Amino acid sequence: MNLPEKFGENVFNDSVQKETLPSEVYKALRATIVAGKTLDVSIAGTVASAMKKWAVSKGATHYTHWFQPLTGLTAEKHESFIEPEGDRVIMRLTGKSLIVGESDASSFPSGGSRATHMARGYTAWDPTSPAFVKEGTLYIPTVFVSYTGETLDKKAPLLRSMRAIDKQAKRILKLFGIECKKVSTTVGPEQEYFLISEEEYLKRKDLQLTGRTLFGAPVTRGQELEDQYFGVIKPKVAEFMRDLDNELWSYGVLSKTKHNEVAPAQHEMAPIFTTANVAVDTNMLTMELMKKVAKKHGLVCLLHEKPFKGINGSGKHNNWSLNTDKGLNLLNPGENPESNTLFKLVLTAVVKAVDDYQGILRSSVASAANDHRLGADEAPPAIISVYLGDQLGALVDSIVKGENYVAEKAANSSIGVPESPIFPKDATDRNRTSPFAFTGNKFEFRMLGSQANVADANICLNTIVADALEKFADELERESDFNAAVNALIERELKAHYRIIFNLDGYGPGWEPEAAKRGLLNNKNTADAVPVCYEEKNVDVYVNQGVYTREEAIARADIRLENYVKIINIEALTMIEMAKRDIIPAVSDFVATLCQNVAAKQAVCDKIPFKTEKDLIEKLAKLNDSTSAAVAKLEKDLKGVDKHDVRPASQAMAHTVIPDMDDVRKLVDEMETLTSSDYWPYPTYFDILYSVK
Ligand code: ADP
Ligand code: MG
Q1: How far is the CA of 320 from the centre of ligand 1 (A)?
Q2: Can you list the residues of the chain whose pLDDT is less than 50?
């Protein structure tokens, strides 16, 4: 295969645009894509017809406006290109159909920001993310807004947040005498996932209905041997990965790295970073393709954040930075960060933003599924803090404490084997335990869930950093002695936000009490994390940056809680059904068999011992009764929740229903360890986690 030739073959990308569009039209389109100029509508017809011609040559018969409603998924409605002409048809895509589509908005979540009788919604072309052909359809990336202009998707606010940060970053650059057309946020999302066999998957209602196992005793061999991470990839998994890469590359996704992750059956794919909105679109496409390709191989790709209790969950590391169209990375410290004032200022803005708005940043990654990771065993804690590493940590310390900074020269490393080359050592070690870590020339936000749309976290990051940059620009533009003013500002702001910096072990027992002393938030679940979004200051920042209206900001928080309530409700109902219809009867049958065995032994002669059976009968019968009682309590409590009033409902789910579910699970998992595998109704963790050979 000729990879460079195959790469992006299904994408209407820059080179295809250049080839197929008249040069005036091409230039006008580029001005929109590269410099953010408002799209010249008069070119739409020409672009549409070139796009259609190219798509048809790739076998397309349909087109769809592809959008990202607040369900967290993508949505599409396919229209064929056909148009009657006499008794024949021609294939056509008009400029209007490219630019705007109409869609019934009433069936998508809106957080009550729109009455259901006002159903009209529009999808509008996002020319900055390239269209592509998939399975006979031309996919046109679009934003989704209501008739009255409210955003109903994740993309419109993302684009607005990118505009906001572009505007403020350019003001800062101007103060440093740097001109550029555009500052883009760049994002590289590393995607973790599980692969299991479809056969086992189809035997588990919980996996099918909720994406995770609601029951399952720990497996005797989990991840303690630490032999899976970066381990040899199994042949069947390797085949899947090869197929996936080919698919991803054909859609222009810059898939770069693949490896085994920490848990059995867990893997990761990391792409090369790109502009934030393209990164979001391609990550959505990546998740879809992972599922599709897995199916072709008789596998199922689980993107849930915690499919298996007691086994590492999956996340998405969101690498985030700011780059000008001339290739300057604003978060690149360079050789001498101490004298790189622009870098120090941008770094300070990020530190300030994360400290001031830790609540909404935490909330931007909150979901029922991600609650199993954050603040639990392996993931970064639910407390937001910033890790800077040794070098920058020392630099910031010196600024805050007014001490002299002695730059530690980047050392060389020798491994003590003369044949091996000496290589330059990185200035910072990795810190896996930080939720928000500086990693060389970017920040890595590690709290995102594996199935999340990464738009949410990036909308928040862009908005809050834009806000900090705006405040800095407002102040600095007024000053006559820029150099003195900028250094004073950096010192003042780093001092003010020093509490958010934490360079030590975030998993250690000392961090929670220390964070509490520093006054940092520690919201462990979605129900407790989201309410900060209703606070005045947290709404204002979105409104001031032109990202959300007040109503939109509130609606998004409501939707997050609504989604949480719905998911816990589905999980609880699934749990009740599995327990009542499968597990309790299975244990009862096994107990009955044990009883028959005892009776059979006694029938032969009363000297045959049956202590084993008797103990087991007693234990299991008791556990089964307790399970019935626990399920009844769960049912009752669940019924008592008024699911329509999402704010109190989410509290009830988090603090009553989930503890009830934990109780049911504990009993059932114990019964699993005592029940004959012939009777247990579901594949065990061993069956599932080691199902792919
Ligand atoms: P690390 O050594 O920290 O793992 P890598 O170079 O392997 O860093 O990159 C990890 C991820 O970060 C990749 O997805 C990569 O494309 C992305 N990345 C690198 N530079 C940037 C940047 N300037 N902006 C956004 N993401 C970036
Ligand atoms: Mg990783």
Answers
A1: 8
A2: 116
Residue 273 near ligand 1, beta carbon < 6 Å:
yes
Ligand 1 atom closest to residue 320's alpha carbon, by position in its atom list: 25
- CB of 588 shorter than 6 A to ligand 1: no
Q: pLDDT tens-digit profile of 8-18?
A: 999 999 999 99
pTM of this prediction exceeds 0.70:
yes
Q: State the distance from the centre of ligand 2 to the C-alpha of 260, rounded, in angstroms.
A: 10
Is residue 49 classed exposed, middle or buried when 0-12, 13-18 and 19+ CB atoms within 10 A define those classes? middle
∠ at Cα 500 (510, 162), nearest 5°?
Answer: 135
Q: Is 37 exposed, middle or buried (0-12, 13-18, 19+ CB in 10 A)?
A: middle
* DSSP tag of 151: B
Q: Tell me how far the alpha carbon of residue 522 lies from the centroid of ligand 2, in angstroms.
A: 23
DSSP class of residue 633? H
- Return d(Cα 290, Cα 449) in angstroms, integer: 16
pLDDT tens digits, 328-352: 999 999 999 999 999 999 999 999 9
Give the residue whose CA is nearest to atom 4 of ligand 1: 439
Could you tell me what percent of the chain has a pLDDT over 70?
94
> Which helix (H) or strand (E) segment is 320 a member of?
strand 315-324
User: Distance, CA 413 to ligand 2 centroid (Å)?
Assistant: 24
The reply to whether ligand 1 has any atom less than 6 angstroms from the CB of 329 is yes
For the chain, the first-to-last Cα distance in angstroms comes to 27
